[in-house]
Design goal:
This protein is an alpha+beta fold. Helices cover 28% and strands 22% of the residues. A hairpin with a 2-residue loop joins strand 10 and strand 11. It is rod-shaped.
Amino acid sequence: MSESIDYAEMLEIPVSTLNVTKKCSRKKKESESDLKDRVVEKVNRHAETMDEEPGYASERIATEENVVEYGASEEYSEPQWTEKSKKKFLDSKLLLAEFIAVCVLCATILLTNLFWQNSAINAFFRGLVTEETPVTLDERNYSELTLGAVVSDSEIECTVTDAGVLTFTGACSVYAPFGGTVRNVTEADGVYTIEIEHTTSFSSVITGLTYAYCAAGDTVFATIPVGYTDGSGEVAVSMYDDGAMIRTYSVNENNDIVWNV
C-alpha cells in the first residue's frame, strides 16, 4: 500500500491527535526537537494536499504535543553506579590512603633518625634488631683479684690444708670466692657440687652443699649466695689456675681469702 493511500485512509477518520512512535538506533541520537518538527511538518504537508473537506483541516493538523516517544534505547541511558563499580572505587581510594600512610611513616622515621636519634620511635626500632654483644675475655691473673669470705657467719672457723683446700663445717650460706659464670652443677647422694669460672685461667669448685641456688650458665657474684649447707657435713672450696690447684693463700680472722704472694 502506498504512502498516499495510507494517509488517505487515516484522514477518513476525524481525529484531533496523532501519535508517532520513535525507535532509537545505534546511530548518533538526533535532537528530539528536530525529529518532532520533521514528523509534524511531513504529516501536515500530506494532510494539506489531500482533497478532503476543509472542515477537517484544522483537526488533521498534527501538533507537536501529539508526538509520543516510546522506550528509549538503553544505549543512551544515563550511566548508573553499580555495586561493583562503587566497590572498585572505594578499593582504589583505600590503596591510595595506605600508600600515603606508608610514605608519611617512612618520612617520619627518616627525619627522626637524622634530627632526633634518641626518640621513642628510634628506640622501638632499635629494640627490634638484636645486636650481638661482643664477648670480653677476662685475662686477669688470680693474684690480681681481691677475694672475700665464702661463709656468711664469721663465727664459723675456716681452715686451709697444705694441699690448698679451704674447709669448714657449720650451717650457713655459701658464697663464691669471686664473681663469674657457673660451668656445672652436679648432685650425688643429696650433696651438690658447683664449678665456677672466674677468669679465663682462674676457677673454683665448691663441694658438700646441701642446696645449690644456681644452674649451669648462670652469672654469680661474690655478694650473693650460691648455695647453703645445714652443717651436717664438711664443705670444701678448691681454687685453680689453668687447672693447677692454688696453694699460696690463707684466711684472716674474718674468713677473707688472702694471697700469700
